[in-house]
Amino acid sequence: MTLLRAVDLRLTFDDRVVFDGLEFVIEEGERVGLVGPNGSGKSSLMKVLAGAMKPDAMTRQVRKGAKVRYLPQEPVFPEGATIRSELEIAQAELKHALDEHARVSAELAHVTGPRHDKLMGELQSLGDRIERLGGWDTEHRARRLLDRLGVKDWERPVAELSGGNRKRVAIARALLERPDLLLLDEPTNHLDADTVDWLEDELDAMQGALLLVTHDRYFLDDLVDRIVEIEPGGGLVS
What we know:
Elements: E1 2-13, E2 16-27, E3 31-35, H1 42-50, E4 57-62, E5 68-71, H2 83-90, H3 92-108, H4 113-133, H5 138-149, H6 163-177, E6 181-185, H7 193-205, E7 209-213, H8 217-223, E8 226-230, E9 236-237
Parallel strand pairs: 3-7, 3-8, 5-6, 6-7
Antiparallel strand pairs: 1-2, 1-4, 8-9
Helix pairs in contact: 2-6, 3-4, 5-6
């Protein structure tokens, strides 16, 4: 099933035509690498597909209900953001489901009859939703990710972090969101070899689709099952 489809994409910068009449399709669960010479428009195309940049023209279709997340080369955080606040935002949907589960469970202890049966059904649905969103211990997974990425002190403002640690927090947030499509632009920048190996394993185990731009050829070859190359003149070859 098609997850994202962009057709008739036109993008220009001043007098330069980057893309004209372009079509790009990603299927559910597909792993795609985007390659091309420097300046060919890889990052721009990724931003357009993610909805982070408005092209001159495009028809963009995303599967209903699909969650698309984009991680740029240099992540941007809201003013005043802390490590904790960023990861709590990433798991907001899961936290809401957990709160609802706790509320329904509490109500179940005081009702009988048809209302009890209705609440049992709600409880089952909420349990299934919680499992799909990552499980019952929201903080444990977040802390495990940050520990593995070498980021400490949950209360520390993101603005105080080095470029490498800011990238690590952004990666953790993206992984915690469990998107249907994750778009990564040079995710291995600022990361040491061990962390790159760990990230490769995490992305390999991820359920959603992946669109990846990277200069790390080994990382690319190990993760993707299709390569899309931007040709001179802005065409694509898959």
